[in-house]
Amino acid sequence: MATPTLADVAGWLSEAEHVTVLTGAGISTESGIPDFRGPQGVWTTNPGAAALFDIDTYLADADVRRQVWQLRRSHPAWTAEPNAAHRALADLSRAGRLDAVITQNIDGLHQRAGTEPDRVIEVHGTIHWVVCLSCGLRTRTPEVLERLAEESDPPCLACGGIQKADTISFGQRLRPEVLEAAVDAAERAEVFVAVGTSLTVQPVAGLCELAAENGARLVIVNAQPTPYDALAAAAFTEPIGQVVPELAAKVLAATR
């Protein structure tokens, strides 16, 4: 059997009524946001950095929280712009060709590219909001970052509790309602496209298998091999900024 081409995959997407996309850190690297596990990833080049993202360590150690707040202040998401892959998915979404974009990213670039916010499922949360771990108050991140000049570990203004970015750290469970939305999108997909994710973090990686078990064609776009390549109907290792826009252009041309 011939290996499916990008044109074949475009045909699948054009014919499908339900398409779901899962994105990981690899889609944002061309926007200047490093991934975590790639050759130049944050944790590849600095393995000790992973400890800063453990919820128990964060809660127990004020020095860790101070380090994390400084990292948040300098996070590249504040200056990053959506790239061609983000814009291509937004084009598909606006054309009604995508049910949902499930993203492991916290940068908000899908929404900035134009994907409708109600179609973006942020399974690992967002850097753009801060949450109090005691009372649950949510505050826009820039408002908290402005306080760093005076307070290196700014407490909640409502109750004095510990605050952190509204993201999922190691040791924290995904929000049940967010995971349920992601599962629903995977189960109804006729084509499930995983873009720029190593597919090693569960339970999100398992959405690929869930989609395939429900009859979806699984398509993987990632520079490195993933544990789900053998399950994929098609896989591409070319640059995401090349593959995704080309795929979107073919789908839109076929459905006009």
From TrEMBL:
<feature type="domain" description="Deacetylase sirtuin-type">
    <location>
        <begin position="1"/>
        <end position="256"/>
    </location>
</feature>
<dbReference type="InterPro" id="IPR003000">
    <property type="entry name" value="Sirtuin"/>
</dbReference>
<feature type="binding site">
    <location>
        <position position="132"/>
    </location>
    <ligand>
        <name>Zn(2+)</name>
    </ligand>
</feature>
<feature type="binding site">
    <location>
        <position position="159"/>
    </location>
    <ligand>
        <name>Zn(2+)</name>
    </ligand>
</feature>
<protein>
    <recommendedName>
        <fullName>protein acetyllysine N-acetyltransferase</fullName>
        <ecNumber>2.3.1.286</ecNumber>
    </recommendedName>
</protein>
<keyword id="KW-0520">NAD</keyword>
<dbReference type="InterPro" id="IPR029035">
    <property type="entry name" value="DHS-like_NAD/FAD-binding_dom"/>
</dbReference>
<feature type="binding site">
    <location>
        <position position="156"/>
    </location>
    <ligand>
        <name>Zn(2+)</name>
    </ligand>
</feature>
<dbReference type="InterPro" id="IPR026590">
    <property type="entry name" value="Ssirtuin_cat_dom"/>
</dbReference>
<feature type="binding site">
    <location>
        <position position="135"/>
    </location>
    <ligand>
        <name>Zn(2+)</name>
    </ligand>
</feature>
<dbReference type="InterPro" id="IPR050134">
    <property type="entry name" value="NAD-dep_sirtuin_deacylases"/>
</dbReference>
<keyword id="KW-0862">Zinc</keyword>
<dbReference type="Pfam" id="PF02146">
    <property type="entry name" value="SIR2"/>
</dbReference>
<dbReference type="InterPro" id="IPR026591">
    <property type="entry name" value="Sirtuin_cat_small_dom_sf"/>
</dbReference>
<keyword id="KW-0808">Transferase</keyword>
<feature type="active site" description="Proton acceptor">
    <location>
        <position position="124"/>
    </location>
</feature>
<keyword id="KW-0479">Metal-binding</keyword>
